[in-house]
Cell division ATP-binding protein FtsE
Amino acid sequence: MIILDQTTKRYQGGHEALRSVSLQVEKGEMVFLTGHSGAGKSTLLKLITRIEVPTSGQIRVNGHLLNRMPKRQVPFYRRDIGMVFQNHQLLMDRTVFDNVALPLRVSGAHPDDMQRRVRAALDKVGLLKREKYYPQMLSGGEQQRVGIARAVVNRPTILLADEPTGNLDPLLSREVMNLFAEFNRVGTTVMIASHDLGLIARMPYRVLTLREGSLVRSSAIEGLRNG
Ligand SMILES: Nc1ncnc2c1ncn2[C@@H]1O[C@H](COP(=O)(O)OP(=O)(O)OP(=O)(O)O)[C@@H](O)[C@H]1O
């Protein structure tokens, strides 16, 4: 579960990226996070991954109070969170297998275990036959799916994505969103920051909307659908 309680984030220089945001995402829920460019979506995801810390207010994730988490505990905490980026941030000189294996190498997994888990993750995103390919040999949609496999290889309970369909055409965007929905169906909590209102409106999930750092709406999307 993700809980923000009157969370404010002011960056150095004084810009208030988030203003007293309170929200709760239930365990096993899938939500979209939307808002204009600069509204604070990435900042919110960075607070949840503990890349940034709030200036005031609290964040609690899976029972951990992030404000008070000692630095040495952060890598362990992050193993339970998968992160997907718009530009997927794959290593272009490594194979698909090695890219997906990266988080397991960092956490010191046993080689046998690594192989099994990388293949399981690639299987889930439909890329089992591409493990020996290099990223540039794949389409944009496939590259994004490698990024998703890497994010889930540690079997995180929370999956976060920052504009994961930003570079994809509508069909591939839909495929990628459906993939997130599949991970959600088996129990993963999913939060996706996205500008793609058309796509979001077609999916049955709660939408959190930020405007200039404030949460302006947290609702089901009936209005959007009917409108
Ligand atoms: N490290 C930083 N230092 C100072 N200001 C920052 C920093 N990171 C973000 N900001 C500012 O905070 C505000 C919110 O940024 P953020 O990246 O969270 O927005 P966003 O909603 O994700 O935008 P986009 O959709 O364009 O990615 C912006 O005004 C941005 O310029």
